[in-house]
């Protein structure tokens, strides 16, 4: 599909449902998962991944209008996986670099910022290596997205 047609097709898909036993959509991000805590990433669960999904990716970023930061990029998650434990990366998944230039969960620090935990269903593996550049990883995820869902926090408690 051409870019515009693919985007229109993706907009008609049912969204993936994303939740967390520790984070409420629209609520504050618990400080345990921020730079003030030591828990790492919060646990996430997702459902309604469409048939034909070949891999799953997760991107955590701020919803800043300018100078947004990407706090985590995880890709090539097995499509049969439907949850992520606190402070962990699923077996076989890879982490791309964040805005800091390092791979791994970079805990959010700006208490007034909104943070988005977005789960993407992809029609192929990203097939980049651990520590892939942020630009490469985000482009590859965007090119392969067939559905997505999001949990958004209002700030950090």
TrEMBL record:
UniProt-listed InterPro entries: PEBP, PEBP-like_sf, YbhB_YbcL/LppC-like
Stored CDD domains: PEBP_bact_arch
Coiled coil: none
Classification via Pfam families: PBP
Stretch list, region Disordered: 1-47, 87-107
Family, per entry: Belongs to the UPF0098 family.
Protein name: Raf kinase inhibitor-like YbhB/YbcL family protein
């Amino acid at each position: 599909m051409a870019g515009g047609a693919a985007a229109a097709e993706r907009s008609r898909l049912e969204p993936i449902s994303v939740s967390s036993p520790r984070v409420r959509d629209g609520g504050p991000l618990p400080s345990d998962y921020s730079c003030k805590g030591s828990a790492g990433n919060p646990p996430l669960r997702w459902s309604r991944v469409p048939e034909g999904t070949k891999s799953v990716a997760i991107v955590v970023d701020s919803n800043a209008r300018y100078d947004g930061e990407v706090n985590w990029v995880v890709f090539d998650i097995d499509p049969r996986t439907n949850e992520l434990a606190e402070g962990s990366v699923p077996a076989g998944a890879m982490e791309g670099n964040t805005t800091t230039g390092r791979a791994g969960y970079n805990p959010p620090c700006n208490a007034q910022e909104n943070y988005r935990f977005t789960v993407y269903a992809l029609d192929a593996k990203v097939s980049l290596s651990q520590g892939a550049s942020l630009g490469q990883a985000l482009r590859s995820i965007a090119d392969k997205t067939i559905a997505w869902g999001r949990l958004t926090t209002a700030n950090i408690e």
